[in-house]
């Protein structure tokens, strides 16, 4: 695998990130410890070093499995990203949310489960719409200064809040957010409206979760196979089916799997993107790793763009209208005056 810098940092991470949400067998599904170890071995042997987990994945079992694995492997080889925010116990009213109190408690417990002295990348998991952004950023910066966290990142948060945060961090001399984790795939392109342009502006790497749309883009549902997605899910609506059919057609042209086509599309969008590929079987990670050798032709890329395109809404669509020349202030204002 090749390595990429994560956002505006010097941190080198593999071009694919291994998602470990399925490490553990709670809730009746997932990989046991032995299988999880084998998955990480396979990923590392291929050059992968970027692991994604969270304090709540499998009730903390995901972090525990990674922690046990790291005891017998080179800790400094791996870049471990985890998250805080979501409720991981019911002992007190501050066991969830973005507050400094929950951040500090959650990080200390993650460090114990991971059996490590530091977390490479700490994500705010989801915006709570309660905690002031300056409280979040000061807490993250303090953890970095203490050496318990190396880099700060953010997930599932409105673009305007992230932009406010990075601007504030730059002004105050605090550590800036270097990565943005959001759902992004051929069937979920709405981050292109605000989130991805914002990430590009701040030099943040996007780490798409569910880049295969929960398995839909693998084509397995078209083949009648069963999965964890309910039939009424929007991921299985007419639009998603139409997109998946094009993905499957292109996969047949290239002689690769549909998953490879869908994953490669997320890696070819003109911004820094490292998709998170989950696995609960060794065969799944082996298959996903093959995407690094896949190349889409411009024609194939255009087909995928067309079948999956979305309405960017205002002001995105307005900027695209004929006659609106954002690179010509005079022409733009003439147009506005005539309206």
Automatic annotation (TrEMBL):
Residues annotated as signal peptide = none
Q: Does the keyword Acyltransferase apply?
A: no
Instruction: Tell me if Membrane is a UniProt keyword of this record.
Output: no
Keyword terms of this UniProt record: Oxidoreductase
User: Which residue numbers delimit the NADP-dependent oxidoreductase domain?
Assistant: 15-308
| UniProt-listed InterPro entries | AKR_Detox_Biosynth, NAD(P)_OxRdtase_dom_sf, NADP_OxRdtase_dom
Q: Which domain of life is it from?
A: Bacteria
PANTHER family in the cross-refs: NAD(P)-LINKED OXIDOREDUCTASE SUPERFAMILY PROTEIN (PTHR43364:SF4), NADH-SPECIFIC METHYLGLYOXAL REDUCTASE-RELATED (PTHR43364)
Protein name, as recorded: Aldo/keto reductase
Q: Say which species the protein is native to.
A: Mucilaginibacter antarcticus
Q: What is the lineage of its organism?
A: Bacteria, Pseudomonadati, Bacteroidota, Sphingobacteriia, Sphingobacteriales
